[in-house]
Amino acid sequence: MNKSELGLGTWQFGPSHGFWIDQDQKASRAVLKLALKSGIRHFDTAPSYGNGLSEQLLSSFLHPRETLQLASKFMPKTPELVRIDVQKSLDRLKTDYLDILYLHWPSSRLALKPIMRAACSLIEEGLVREVGACNIPLSYLAEWEDLPITVLQIPCSLLWVRSMDQYRSYARDHGLTLVGYSPLGLGLLGSSHPSPPQDGRKNLYVYQPEAYEQYRNLLDLLSRLADRKGCTSAQLALLWARSQGFSTIVAGSRNEEQLKQLLCTSHLELDEEEKSLLDERAEALTSCAPSSWDNYFGHRW
């Protein structure tokens, strides 16, 4: 199977919700420079990443704009706010259009179809080229099949494989592009983590008693396979994600060294036995999360 395109996620550039609280802006700019120099052309952001900081940082690096694919997100409470919110993102990004606009975290308390219809109307205005949904339960999508929604973004990570086969099938059957995020599990698949990081990641389900042993088992397997291949655990986790049949995998990097690691995987391949072993460990870990969860953050707005 061909490897997915590698895109750059930029949540880590804008501290928010207790995550990435000590990110250095100079390091963020260095990552963006290296990404562009290395041929990355897909960039993913959101207004909630640092209350607009991530979008503002990106704005200085988006030229020539026509060679790049830029995705941002929105979480409006009413259809009337959709255009207003998107225009704020365009202003921060200093661009006339978004290649992809995602509904970020769908709320069960809102009537979402009118909101999505308003987002799709921005295609006709030229403000948005495609509309998608991020972290969307499959049950919601059945109600929106008459809308021109063309992209789905979900986790593609060894930390979370629940329902991945169903999303792949749905995307294939409905002609949708599938974009995966967090291939490194918010950095938790890159090395051994005997204790939780001192930021929002410490609340992730992998550190709960019922899941922690399975998480360590997954890290041990990643380490063994990485040693066999002469690469790092982070590279192997990304390689697994890029073999899952998604169009694009969006990975984050907090500094140049992290991004250099991720760029040096073109020579690596996973065989079927390695994929199977990783799949089994990922399934065992994901099964430790409550059955009602459809994302590894465990929440729904």
Structural commentary:
- The protein is α/β, with parallel strands linked by helices.
- The chain has one domain (5-286): NADP-dependent oxidoreductase domain (TIM Barrel), CATH 3.20.20.
- 39% of the residues lie in helices and 15% in strands.
- It has ten helices and eight strands.
- The protein has helices spanning 25-37, 53-59, 80-93, 112-125, 138-141, 164-174, 209-229, 233-242, 256-263, 272-286, and strands at 5-9, 42-44, 69-74, 98-103, 128-134, 149-155, 177-181, 248-252.
- Strands 1-2-3-4-5-6-7-8 form an eight-stranded parallel β-barrel, surrounded by four helices.
- α4 (112-125) links the parallel β4 and β5.
- α7 (209-229) packs antiparallel against α10.
- The two termini are 35 Å apart.
- The mean pLDDT is 94.
